[in-house]
Amino acid sequence: RFCGNNFQNAKTVIWGLPTSDSAHATNQIKFMKNGSLLIAQGGNTGAGGTAFQYGAFYYPEQPLSAAVLIAPVQRAGFKGNCTPNQSERNLDETRKASKAKPNCDVEVFSSGLRNIWDFDFHPNGRIYATDNAVGSGRATHPKLPNGWKPGDDCNEPLTRSDDLSKYIVVDRSDVLLELREGRYYGHPNPSRNECIRDAGNPTRGVDARLAGPSSEGRSYAFETTSYPVGTQAQGNEKGLFPYKEPLLPLGLSKSANGIIAYRGNAFCGAMRGDLLVAYYSVGDQIKRFKLNNAGTKVVFDETLRRSTKSTGGEEMNNPLSIAQDDDGNIYVAEYRNARISVFVPKAVKC
Fold first, then answer.
1. pLDDT of residue 57
2. Nearest CA among 82, 80, 46, 47 for reference residue 63
């Protein structure tokens, strides 16, 4: 917390949150109307399990990783020391993290989020977010013990004697989510007994196939076929958060990050309420998504004009964060171009 006339006074409010060995850590933070802070917290693993062979995502998940967290920081006596009971850096080859939640006043708001970068509050009262999926095909889901049932422990580690081909997951689409408190979005976390990735593997056929952006014309299956046939998506067994499927798959390796719900009245209000998402890679652009009146479905999508060379703009390079001002201007931070690009709406007659 920074305060003072020149924000010269700093106070650490929350510390000890998880961090992976592969660039997943604490991301965007935003306040709710009630004064509580929501925190986008990345996961420690590629798909819930650890695999020492790959030299990445070695640290296991922890009770406060892979989630959106909620912290009532305005509350008197708020406890912000979330240092884990066991340091992920001091694990032996078993890579089993402690399941004991740190003694702090930070809780899980939504779970199952692999590397959520950003989220935004929409005027319709809903929260929308992006999440990055595994893109390398070199990640593993948790190992289910013999006789496992929903709600049981799945913290049994993968070791050098295991055949990792039984646990490796295929590439999955990045996603656009409608974020709700108490829901699970598919990234396992054994420290919370969240063991099933996405929709599981309910049948021998293709399960949980969802259409992607209309501009791409393809669909994506949110199943994990390395689970035994009959494995269902996570329900609410033993207090678990039940699975909620994505609002929209965005495609492979987009690295969808920054997101805003556009509030400006540009173009006679034609974009008001639309979601704008920054694609960091595979097309480096700003994507526009129009929702139905209920906010429960994407009904139109397109590349924001002038956010790519082909739409009349300059080539963007790793657009990461996106913001807007009261005049409807859109600001995009580009990582590789080391600049902030500004999109100014043209004045039109309504």
1. 61
2. 82
